[in-house]
Amino acid sequence: MTEPAETPDPTDARASAPEADAAADDRSLADVLAEFDYSFPQEQIEQLDAYRRVLWEWNEKMNLTRHTTLEKFVTRDVGDSWELANLLEKGERVLDVGSGGGVPGVILAIIRPDLDVSLCESVAKKAQALEDIVQTLGLDAKVFGARAEDLLEVTTFDTLVVRAVAPMRKLLFWLAPRWDAFDRLLLIKGRNWVAERGEARHYSLLNKLELRKVAEYVTRGADAVSVILKIEPKEQD
To answer: Main EC class of this protein (predicted)?
Structure first.
């Protein structure tokens, strides 16, 4: 199989330069969570606050996130992770592919401690940052400094979750030989998902797979619409 040619992914948040910080915000994370109708136990709010602090500290050394205001952290990072959390069963083995700064994997490990969460990041310095973040927060999550397709040669998972890593066609090309190592793929995508699906079909990457839109939501405080796509092998007759 010939790999599809590289093209920019307009929905890839990590590909953009970090946005400028907003003016000083005297609200707490708890205030902003409440403002956007997110409710978590106090212990989880404190963990989320500790996470965004250490993430932003690391972000001064390397580009891990462009969501460097409380409002963006809540509406984009917590929001996407919360939507994913609603689709995961208790005890699932979840791999965050291309975890970057830890979204959604770290947040899933905080708000869904019943999950067995692993983080996969192929860029060594980012994997080191993730390891520090996980250790600082005392989370029971594993960090793998490897490409997902290599990790899946030796480890199995129930669900792979992916946000802002690459176009659908490239993800499916990378993962095509590894479907025996996981059950399903959950992709967070933006407005361009239909075009991405068409491109994946053009390269025959969905022939043996079933794709369903399992969630659609508007980013709170904005007009951006996101979807979560579930991709899994078609049932054999």
So the answer is: transferase
